[in-house]
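Support request from a user on the community tier.

User writes: "When I paste my structure tokens into the form, the page sometimes reloads and wipes my input. The last time it worked, I copied everything first. Here is what I submitted, just in case something in the input itself triggers the reload:"
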């Protein structure tokens, strides 16, 4: 927007009547014609491709619609339909080669640019004279070219309708989300079952059809079969798209960005033309702008984390209670032991990043992996496994409901459900926006853990609203209340935030009263209780305020108490740093992220505690051989199953005296 304003102001001072109503009307008419092509190439860029052949497609479609109207004298609707289909077919050539044959987009469209242009030149020699010698008797054709509706050019109305549809497509419809998903990460898109090849191919078809729409309005306005039609158009539209903010790497972009880029480039080219700049010089200027915009886009994408460190990271003061001095004493609550040393391993090397684990009534074991899949290990020996469902993002907390559905918190994506028929469904990926928030915090960044309430409602944690899952270290450095707890009501399909300003809220488990939950605040090393129903509804109270490490998932034990995963241990140095926000701010600005002070997540343990906050038991793996980082555990039929987001295996240990009829997923059964 700032670039657009600067362009208008600059040329207004250099050119008389640059922003006069007549000039603006003409500019908007041309911008709409250009905008169709920019929209088309934006869809291709969003999906991770590039289309250099738009100039040749534009020239061929211009020639075709003129021949249909001037020589064949076809009705206007038929001419438009033929041209749109023809443009889509030309785009399909690119789409099939790139989408299905997986050819390089740059080289492929460069070749089709040359081939299509050669075909245009051969045909143009034969049809230019007949086209120029005949003119159609069609008032609607004239209206499309230079007419207006309510003083607004016809082309602007048509472009506005198409742009609105594309906006709805990208922001509200599944095909648009698929485009963004494929452009963001093709591997993840494939893992969740998206037809990646078809989506890529169709983006080129859409680009061809939109380019043909531009050619139709251009032909109606100028009626010119010139040999130089469309020359340099690919540079113009690429510059407009990238300057507007469509990312070259794919996965990001919007219709508004495409429109802004179109207006900037159109005003720039028209301004240069009115200043008597030669065509060659104008193209050099556009190519230079394209080069600078592409370099900025690439460099920003590569170095954005450094910029975030400089401008965005905002450490807060966080004082934790002093760690007890007698922590290593034989009778202390956290007295060291080696009870996890001989944990049995499941799926060693077959799974990566099993953050949470859960079992069904048939004793089958489920866990997510970092490739965006949920893996099922079959009882009784867990030697055989399969991909139970493909979700696409990192599965974190999991819970079964009474209808045999597996609910999953997916990092960066929200809350999902895998039905008993193994269909993956999005439940929610947004909540109500904070009234006083400067930025829109309605989208879910890091849904973490969940539990299902007796009436079917779901409470889940979102660890941070400021950072992505892989940026957890930055959130830890801030020590700020960036997290929240969210309630999803399936009856009304409504998602609302019930608690805000929590410091990395993590594990969630239903309390024994059925009216409250216990949840962990990782960087505060504490466990709290929140009442969602009953006479104390809305209240929050402390349960444990001085854990020795950073708590993660919480689950029910067979004796009615609770198991807690400690993913890493506190240190006096890091505790001190959390009381020095200025020190952490300087560290974030002056050092790369891999040299920051960070929470120790190399050694963890499992703790059993009761609702009064008393530590009842603790299990350690002091040498960190089997489970150096523990993020979850589930008790099931006398065994404790252990997960860890940085591990490549699941652990199992026999519990002495545990109830061997206790099922981690309650009465639920998965077929």
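"...and here is what came back when it finally went through:"
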């Amino acid at each position: 927007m700032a670039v657009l304003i600067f362009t208008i102001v600059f040329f207004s001072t250099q050119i008389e009547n640059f922003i006069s109503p007549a000039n603006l009307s003409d500019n908007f008419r041309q911008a709409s014609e250009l905008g169709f092509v920019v929209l088309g190439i934006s869809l291709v860029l969003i999906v991770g491709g590039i289309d250099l052949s738009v100039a040749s497609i534009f020239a061929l479609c211009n020639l075709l619609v003129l021949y249909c109207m001037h020589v064949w004298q076809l009705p206007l609707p038929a001419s438009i339909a033929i041209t749109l289909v023809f443009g889509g077919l030309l785009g399909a050539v690119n789409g099939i080669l790139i989408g299905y044959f997986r050819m390089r987009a740059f080289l492929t469209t460069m070749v089709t640019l040359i081939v299509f242009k050669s075909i245009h030149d051969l045909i143009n020699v034969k049809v230019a004279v007949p086209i120029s010698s005949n003119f159609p008797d069609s008032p609607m054709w004239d209206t499309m070219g230079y007419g207006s509706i309510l003083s607004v050019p016809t082309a602007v109305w048509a472009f506005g309708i198409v742009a609105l549809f594309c906006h709805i497509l990208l922001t509200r419809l599944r095909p648009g989300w698929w485009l963004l998903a494929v452009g963001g990460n093709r591997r993840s898109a494939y893992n969740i079952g998206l037809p990646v090849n078809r989506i890529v191919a169709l983006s080129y078809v859409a680009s061809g059809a939109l380019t043909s729409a531009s050619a139709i309005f251009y032909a109606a306005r100028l009626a010119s079969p010139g040999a130089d039609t469309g020359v340099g158009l690919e540079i113009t539209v690429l510059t407009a798209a990238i300057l507007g903010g469509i990312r070259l790497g794919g996965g990001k972009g919007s219709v508004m960005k495409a429109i802004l880029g179109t207006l900037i480039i159109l005003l720039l080219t028209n301004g240069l033309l009115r200043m008597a700049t030669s065509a060659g010089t104008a193209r050099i200027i556009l190519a230079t702008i394209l080069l600078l915009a592409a370099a900025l886009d690439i460099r920003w994408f590569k170095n954005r984390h450094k910029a975030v460190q400089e401008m965005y990271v905002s450490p807060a003061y966080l004082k934790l209670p002093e760690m007890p001095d007698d922590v290593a004493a034989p009778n202390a609550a956290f007295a060291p032991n080696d009870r996890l040393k001989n944990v049995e391993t499941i799926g060693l090397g077959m799974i990566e990043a099993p953050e949470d684990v859960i079992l069904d009534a048939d004793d089958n074991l489920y866990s997510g992996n970092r490739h965006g899949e949920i893996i099922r290990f079959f009882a009784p020996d867990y030697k055989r496994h399969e991909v139970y469902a493909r979700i696409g993002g990192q599965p974190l907390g999991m819970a079964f409901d009474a209808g045999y559905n597996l609910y999953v918190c997916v990092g960066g994506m929200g809350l999902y459900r895998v039905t008993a028929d193994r269909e993956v469904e999005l439940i929610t990926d947004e909540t109500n926006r904070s009234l006083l928030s400067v930025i829109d915090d309605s989208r879910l960044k890091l849904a973490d853990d969940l539990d299902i309430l007796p009436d079917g409602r779901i409470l889940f944690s979102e660890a941070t609203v400021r950072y992505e899952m892989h940026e957890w270290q930055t959130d830890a450095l801030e020590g700020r209340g960036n997290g929240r707890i969210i309630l999803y009501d399936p009856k009304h399909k409504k998602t609302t935030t019930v608690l805000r300003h929590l410091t990395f809220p993590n594990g969630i488990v239903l309390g024994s009263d059925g009216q409250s939950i216990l949840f962990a605040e990782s960087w505060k090393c504490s466990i709290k209780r929140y009442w969602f129903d009953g006479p104390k509804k809305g209240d929050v109270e402390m349960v444990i305020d001085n854990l020795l490490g950073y708590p993660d998932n919480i689950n029910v034990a067979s004796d009615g108490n609770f198991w807690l995963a400690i993913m890493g241990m506190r240190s006096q140095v890091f505790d001190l740093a959390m009381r020095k926000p200025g020190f952490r701010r300087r560290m974030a600005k002056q050092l790369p992220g891999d040299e920051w002070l960070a929470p120790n997540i190399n050694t963890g343990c499992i703790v059993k505690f009761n609702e009064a906050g008393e530590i009842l038991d603790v299990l350690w793996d002091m040498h960190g051989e089997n489970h150096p980082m523990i993020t979850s555990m589930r008790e099931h039929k006398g065994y404790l199953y252990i997960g860890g987001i940085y591990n490549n295996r699941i652990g199992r240990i026999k519990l002495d005296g545990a109830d061997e009829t206790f099922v981690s997923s309650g009465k639920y059964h998965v077929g």
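Agent notes: The reload is a front-end session timeout and is unrelated to the input. Residues 666-671 have pLDDT under 50 and may be disordered. The longest helix spans residues 279-311. Escalated to web team.
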